[in-house]
Amino acid sequence: MATDAYNFLAAWQLFPEKGTYQHGSRPKSGIYRIAFSNSQKELLISINWVTLEDYAFSSEYTLIPDGEAHSFADTEVGDTVSAAFYDSTHFQIIFYRAGSESLRVDHEITPQGYLKVTQQHAIEGEVKSNTEYYHKQL
């Protein structure tokens, strides 16, 4: 697991103009951080973004990337979450609410070395997708 995660562990800066948004609006800027906890068992995700209107938001959560469903504290997103690394260039997080998938977040390291994040939001029986591209912060 730690070997597959290595390429993702970084702070990533958003390319706002490269994304597509069906759910919500395009942010002006954003940072996506992925790190392991000290125990190397939990993955820490931290997301900060600024809207075009200059409002700042953040989200931070911890999950266990073992492919199993685990309870999740932020019930606005879901009550359980599963995460898994498939290889060194792909990992996925799925949030569930009352047993149904509410949000799927696919992470891919592109051949150019960018992080591509695709979010699929299940809203009232309809799926809306957002795709974002990030580059590693140096």
Characterize the main sheet.
Answer: 11 strands, antiparallel
Oligomeric organization of the protein chains: single chain
SSE string, helices as H and strands as E: HEEEEEEEEEEE
Number of strands: 11
What report would you give on this structure?
- The chain is mainly beta and 138 residues long.
- The chain is built from one helix and eleven strands; from the N terminus they run αβββββββββββ.
- The chain has one helix at 2-5, and strands at 10-14, 20-21, 29-36, 43-50, 56-63, 70-71, 80-87, 90-97, 100-109, 115-123, 126-136.
- Strands 1, 2, 3, 4, 5, 6, 7, 8, 9, 10 and 11 form an eleven-stranded antiparallel β-sheet that branches.
- Strand 8 and strand 9 form a beta hairpin.
- The longest helix has 4 residues, at 2-5.
- It is globular.
- It starts with a helix and ends with a strand.
- The model has no long low-confidence stretch (mean pLDDT 92).
Spell out the key features of this protein.
single chain, 138 residues, mainly beta, 11-stranded antiparallel sheet, 3% helix, 57% strand
Summarize the structure.
3% of the residues lie in helices and 57% in strands. It is built from one helix and eleven strands.
Topology, element by element:
Layout: H1 2-5, E1 10-14, E2 20-21, E3 29-36, E4 43-50, E5 56-63, E6 70-71, E7 80-87, E8 90-97, E9 100-109, E10 115-123, E11 126-136
